[in-house]
Amino acid sequence: MCGITGAYAFSDLGRSALANLQAATDAIVRRGPDSQGHFVYDQCGLGFRRLAILDLSADGNQPMTDASGRYTIVFNGEIFNYRELRAKLIQKGYRFHSQTDTEVILNLYISEGRSFIKKLNGFFGFAIFDKEENSLFIARDRFGVKPLHVYRDEDRLLFGSELKSLLALGVPRKLDYVALSQYLQLNYIPGPATIFKGIKKLLPGHY
Fold first, then answer.
1. Is 2 one of the annotated active-site residues of the chain?
2. Which residue in 1, 2, 66, 145 is the catalytic one?
3. What structural domains does the chain harbor?
C-alpha cells in the first residue's frame, strides 16, 4: 500500500495548495513508511509515500521522472502484466532504470498516450504530469480497488489516496449532509460523493 497526493493550480490563489504538499504527504504516512518524495514544477505539485514491494532500491522511489525530464508520475497499485509490457517496450527501444511497474506505466504513457490504460491488468491510481503540455492526467483502475479522491474549484485541482490529504491541501472541512444521511441509512456513501462537500471519489475506470 502506497499513497499519492497532489495539486494543480489554475490561479495564483490556487498555488497556496503547493505550500501544503508536505503536510498532505505527511497525512498519509501510514500508507508508505519506507520513503517519501515530492515534485513541484510551476503550478503542479505531486507527493508520494512509499511501501517498497518491487525494486526496493532508491531507483523505485517516486515521484518518478523519465529520462527526458518531461513526464513525472506518482503511482499507487500493482500491475500484474508489467513484465510482459516492459518486454514489449524494450523491443521498441525504451530503456529502464528500475524493475518497477511504475516505470512501465510511465513509458507506456509516453509511447501510446492515454489509451495505454486498456493494456493494464491490475489495480491502480496514478497521476502523470506533462511538463511540455502543462497537463495532469489522473486515472483509477476499472474495479476501483485503489482509492482516489479529487476536489476541483476555479483555483485548483487537488487529488489524494485519502480524504485527509485533500483536507491538508486546504479543502474546507464542510460536511455533505446528503452524504451523511446516505451513510446513516446505507452504512456507506455511494460514489462519487464523500462525507466532505466538494470532495468526490474518482469513479472506477474513470480519468
1. yes
2. 2
3. 3-173 (3.60.20.10)
